[in-house]
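DATA SHEET
Item: assembly model
Revision: 1
Owner: S.N.
Input lines:
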Amino acid sequence: MFAFLLQSVASTFDRPAIDLHALAPEFVLTGALVVVLLVDLFTPKGSRGIVPSVAGIGILAAMVPVLTLALDGADRSMFGGAYVVDNFSLVLQAMFLLAAYVVVLLSTNYVAEGDYAEGEYYFLLLCALLGMLVMASSRDLITMFVALELLSIPAYMLAGWRKRDRRGNEAGVKYYLMGVFASAVMLYGMSLLYGISGSTLFSDIALAVARGNGLGDTTPLITLGVVFVLIGFAFKVSAVPFHTWAPDTYEGAPTPVTAFLAVSSKAAGFVALLQLILIAFIGRDDVVGPLMWVLAALTMTVGNLIALRQTNIVRMLAYSGVAQAGFMLAPLAVVGSNSDGARSAVVTYLLIYAAMNLGAFAVVLIVARKTRSAEIASWGGLFEYAPGLTVLMTVFLFSLAGIPPLGGWLAKFVVFRALLSPDLTAGGVILAVVVGVNSVIALYYYANVARQMWMNPVPDGDRTPVRIPFSLAAAVTLSVVLTVAFGVSDLATHLGDLATFLPA
Amino acid sequence: MVAQNVFFYLLAGIILFSAFRVVTSNNVVHAALYLVAVLAAVAAEYVLLAAEFVAATQVLVYIGAIIVLFLFGIMLTRAKLGSDQDLTHPHWALSAATAVVMFGVMGYALVDQFHWTATPLPADTRLVSVDGSNSATVSDSVFTAYLVPFEVVSVLLLAALVGAIVLARKD
Amino acid sequence: MSDFLRDYLTVGIFGLTGVALVGLLLGLGSLLRPTRPQPQKYINYESGVDPVGTGWGQSNVRYYIFALLFVMFDVEAVFIFPFATRVDAYGWFGLIEMGIFIVVLALGLLYAWKKKVLRWV
């Protein structure tokens, strides 16, 4: 009876073709994370300072095959289309690697000076990064789900890394509970989609989902499957009403981890949403469009209104990140009429958002080294003792607000363009108005921080200059260069247009 | 076919009763043990569906390992175990109503799609049976279509272990 | 009923027979043995001494880590079972892929060992 466990089977097996070049970024990164773990295990306690360097070098090394694949230019597809290397995956993988490198720079001093497990911190960071790389290439439900778990589970633990701090524990537990709940809902949706299509491949699901009831209309089960899967990722990108974990988690987590969650993890959610909406659910914009419309409008409005009342800069950035997610969701509401424009707009926005938000967090980290506080009030008179930093923070804040000629302005512009072209639709126009109103509201709280820095007096009268460690200086420089470059050149829009999917 | 249906409803009854007790039990340990009954009956349902490998996995991983983690977790966090009156959430009626509505929606959608007839799954070309052996079929799909997720799972487990050790360690 | 389920019916009948046998013997015993209830008979048995405190104690966090290690290698076993049925057909390819999987998991064991969480003091 248990022959099924022992039965010797003689039939032949077709070995899948494995393109080592295509998988090289993942292999290099896996090698790097193994090295990080071994370095942590086999070096004496005093010399663990090399761990962040090893992690950084590993990330940069993984960038090399991404660049060679980009130069090669050929689209590659493996495992029956479940795992691909196309322009989209390469652009997003490059972004994930660069963002993670900046996060390593942000973490170096913070983690070394705090009471943290250092080696494991970078190990988990690289594990989450590997999940993101896999996410950008996955065109299959199972691959995507495993990638999501690989990028989430290390993030849950990193959020609770300050394990002796009650707020740190709250951050980890809240994020974890909300995250696994979202995963469960999503998994149920995936099982429905598998039941409908009989396949986990996005291309097969697209056929079954577009066929609908045979007349091209959706059926309740398809609607339910699509909505459940999308809601699972709405948690990841902290869309309202699934955002409740974000402020407490952002505040309680170590600040570099907050930056990682706000940028990389959120971007990974958008990458998944783009792939699902534009490949698997492409024929079902009658379901996706309205859902995204409501999510986008709610997310930016609620995020902005709550951000107005924040007095803690990390919480303010958390809610502003919620609002920014709303702006990024907006183009997805018009996938039916402008799918290429929506993809390009979201990718462009993601690239710019990563640069400016990481920059803002870097400045927050630098200032907190002196003021030991994250209250906006403690930023008073920053200009008097750190004029350079003040200018940089103003650049990041005005970019987040969308003021030309900085990157954030271009990001807003591509969203408007996607919403209003190729022809005006009622839904697109109304959403564009909502985006416009929200941009104005957002300006208020970003400008409030700027006013605090430029105009208000120093709260404790301590005007000693701020010492900036090398790694943080490098992170700020990289972010500000990209933020300005994205604003004055068409680099980001160009990459956004370039990031096309492999035709199914 | 008839005997199969009889067993199906028998097992479904066990699952429903045990699942109900999981959420209504006043003792967390009892709730966890009722969960074992739910999982075991689900494993038996898998056997009815001729999915032996899934059934074996269910017993090995869920009943054998996950429940053990549950029990250790419970014993770790609560020193005094026994019946607790505060286990019931104050908004339980609202949650129950939500659950009923969700059940209605999902049930309606499933019946609408597949009706009350047995619908064979569309054949996935990547999951053709290998010499009638269930596990061999699973193995072949793991080593062809799902090779990347398979390897990624090992990193995932490693990350979970390392993270858990860091958070649980006393230093 | 298919042959497949008939096989499992045998398992079911075997299980039911087992339960019935135990019930029968215990029932028979309760009919034959004398019944003299005393409160002392309901005290938990603790090696002959009177038990102290309640039956439940808070468990050590070490148990949790051991359980976690167990889960990890349990999942490994789940993947190895089907692999074993096809190992001939896969040849070197299968060994390399499974080798990567096992080595990565073994790193977890190495980590636990080096961080001394396996030590029982």
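QC remark: The CA atoms of residues 30 and 65 of chain C lie 43 Å apart.
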